[in-house]
Amino acid sequence: MRAELDRMLSQAYELCEDGNFLDALKLYDLILKKEPQNIVALLDKGVTLQNLGRLKQSIKYYDKVIHLDPRNIQALINKGASLHSSKKYHDAIHCYDLALKIDKKSPMALAYKGLSLGELGNLNDALKHFKKALSIEKDYDLASIGKDTVTKLLKSIQNQKSKTQ
């Protein structure tokens, strides 16, 4: 049975890679029918729902993973990303903070927290988080793009202040 579940998980993952999210969901449902607490299937189903824009449903699956494994950084970060996409930036930051308590050097948690801070207008804090993510993983595109964007915004704001003085 284990080999069969692993094969189904692999097949569902491949379907997602090919953009066949609805077919992947059917496979995840079959897996979860046989093994309701399969963390990989729960997490991947959450990601698949998130890719489909079904954010509330994806959060429910991330919560199931977190209930089974409170230290699952991927579930915390993915839940934060779904909350961010739902414009619930404070809730997203809470998820990233929980992930950072587990691994304070998670570049993904740092960069995603930077994105949410930026959306809240906390540009200096956002910049700090992007820089910290880049100090850990220098080629991290999300952090690099975020840092560049925030730097340009801060310069623009500074130029506006200079013009009005």
UniProtKB/TrEMBL annotation:
User: Which Pfam families does the UniProt record give?
Assistant: TPR_19, TPR_3, TPR_8
Q: Does the keyword Repeat apply?
A: yes
Describe where the TPR repeats fall, as residue ranges on this chain: 39-72, 107-140
Alphabetized, the UniProt keywords read: Repeat, TPR repeat
| Name of the protein this chain belongs to | Tetratricopeptide repeat protein
